[in-house]
Amino acid sequence: MYASMLRHAPALCCFPIESKSRELDSRVYLGLRFVREGCPVLVGSKGGVHKHMHALGPRPLYFAKGLNHQSVSMLQEIHSQGGAVVNLDEENYSAVGHDTMDYMVQGRNTEALLRYIELTFTWSRVVRRKILQYAPEWYDPHDVVVTGNARFDLRRPAFKALYCTGLPERLGVQPGYVLINTAFGAGNHVLGVEHFLKKARFNYRQLYHEPYFLAKHAYQKRLLQAFIHAARRLAQDLPETHVVIRPHPSESPEPYAPLHGNPENLHVVRRGLAQEWIAQAAVLIHHDCTTGLEALFHELPTITYCPELQMNQVKDSCVLSAHMVRSEDELAATVQRVLDGERLTPDAQRLGHLRESVDNLDYSAGERIVDTVMQRLDTLFARARDAWERSPRIDAPVPNPDQDETEEVRKRYEQYRRNKFAGLSLQEVQDLVNGLGAADPDLPRVRVADLGNEGFLLTADAATEKRP
Question: Which of 103, 21, 63 is nearest to 289 (CA)?
Fold first, then answer.
C-alpha cells in the first residue's frame, strides 16, 4: 500500500534508533523537517527500519548514527537496493580525550566504510579535521560537513515544555531534584570487564592497546565508587531534596541497586528520555557525560565532579565546559549554593570549550542538515550507484563476537539492548510529533503509521501540510 504512495517521493529518509533516551526526539525532529521538504520518513528501532526500508520506496536514504567495520555488508546491501548513506556524528568524537578520539575516528571511518558513506555530518570542526587527517587520499573533503547535532536544537527554551512530562512525579520524585548522570560503561559494563575488553579488541582491531583500556576500566571503576559515596552523602545532607542517579544504558545495575530508597530521597532510575530528567532538575552532576553539554544548553547549573581526573581517559570538552569540583566536600557545598539560588553561569573559558565541541550554539543543526541533504540529494544517489557499480558484491557479515558467548552473557547482552531501546509505541511517536509541533508551529502536520516491528512511517497530512 505504502510503496505505491511513496514511489515519486524525492527520498525515503530512514532513521534507525539505537539509544532511545539519546536519539528518539532529535530523529523525529529531523524527520519532521524532511517531511516538510516532501520526503516521507521511516523511524524506529534498527530492526524495524531495516525490515521496512527497502519495501517502501526506490530511494532509501539511511541516516547512520555511527559505524564500525561490522557495518560494511549492511551499507553494501543498502547500496545494492538503490539507497544512499548519511553518517550522523552521534558519538561526538570532539568531546573525547585525544587518545580515545584517535581510536574512535580511525575505527569508525575506515577506508572500507568511507566507500559506502556519501555524506558525514559532524558536531564540530575538530572532528572534521580528525576525519580528514586519517581519510584516504581519494576521499573528498566536501563530503564532511560541520553542522552540530540536532539534539541541541531541541534545547531551545521553546521546547522545554515538551520534556515536562510528569515522569519524575509518576516515579515519586519531586521536581527540583539533584540529578546525577553517570557514564561508566568501561568500569561497570553490564557484560563485565572481560567482555568489555573483548568488544574493544573486536571494534578497534589493530588500534587496540590493552594497557589503555585496562587503565580506562580501573579509572571508571574508582569514579563509580566515588559517585556512589557522593550520592549517599548528598541525599543524607539534603533530606528535603530528592537525589536521582541515572546510570548509562551500558552500565550494570548491580552497584546501584543498594542505593534506591536508601535513604528514602535517593532514587536510581532508567526510564525516560535524558531531557525529561534534565528539564525539571535543579542541578546536574556528571563526570564526562554528553548530557552535561545538553544541560548547559538548558541553562541548568551543571557540575563536573572530578575526585580524580585523567584527561586522556575523558571526553575533555564535557569535563571542561561545566563548573568543576575536585572533592566531595566541595561538591556538597556547591550543590547547596545552587539550591540557594546560584546559577553557575559558564565563564568565557568554559563557553569556549562548549563552542569547540558543539557547532550549533544557535540551534541550527537541523536546518543545516536538511538543507545540505536536499541540495545534494540527486548527487548522493548518483554517487551511491557509482560506489556499488565499482564493487557489485556484498561482503560476508563480520561474525559478532557475542555469538560464541555463554547463555549468561547472551542474557546480559539482551539486557544491554533493552537498556538502550526498551520498545517504542505508536502513541509515543504520535505524542512526540504533537509536542514538537506545538513547540514549533513551522513543522508540518504528519500522519504516523505503525508498520510493525517498531517501525513507523511519517508522511505529510494532505489536508494541511503546515500548522496554522
Answer: 21
pLDDT value of residue 69: 80
Q: Which three cell numbers stand for residue 284?
A: 546536574
Statement to judge: residues 138 and 172 lie in one domain: no
State pLDDT tens for residues 402-457. 556 678 777 877 888 888 898 999 999 999 999 999 999 999 999 999 999 999 99
Neighbour order of strands in the sheet with 144-146: 144-146, 119-122, 84-88, 60-64, 12-17, 41-45, 455-460, 446-452
Whether the model clears a pTM of 0.85, i.e. scores above it, the answer is: yes
Number of residues that make up the chain: 468
CA–CA distance from 406 to each of 70, 190, 192, 195 (Å)? 21, 14, 13, 11
Q: Residue 55 and residue 50: Cα distance in Å, rounded?
A: 10
Among 357, 385, 401, identify where a domain stops.
357
Place of cell 545534494: 376
Question: Considering Cα of 7, then 13, then 16, then 17, what sign does the dihedral take?
Answer: negative
Average pLDDT over every residue of 242-269 = 95
Total structural domains within the chain: 2
Amino acid identity of residue 387, one-letter, is A
d(CA 348, CA 398): 47
The residues with which 374 forms a beta bridge, in sequence order, are none
Kindly provide the residue ranges of all beta strands, DSSP E only, lying in 193-246, ordered along the sequence. 243-246
Q: What is the 3-state secondary structure (H, E, C) of 313-351?
A: HCCHHHHHHCEEECCHHHHHHHHHHHHCCCCCCCCHHHH
Domain annotation covers residue 245: yes
3-state per-residue secondary structure call for 233-281: HHHHHCCCCCEEEECCCCECCHHHHHHCCCCCCEEECCCCCHHHHHCCE
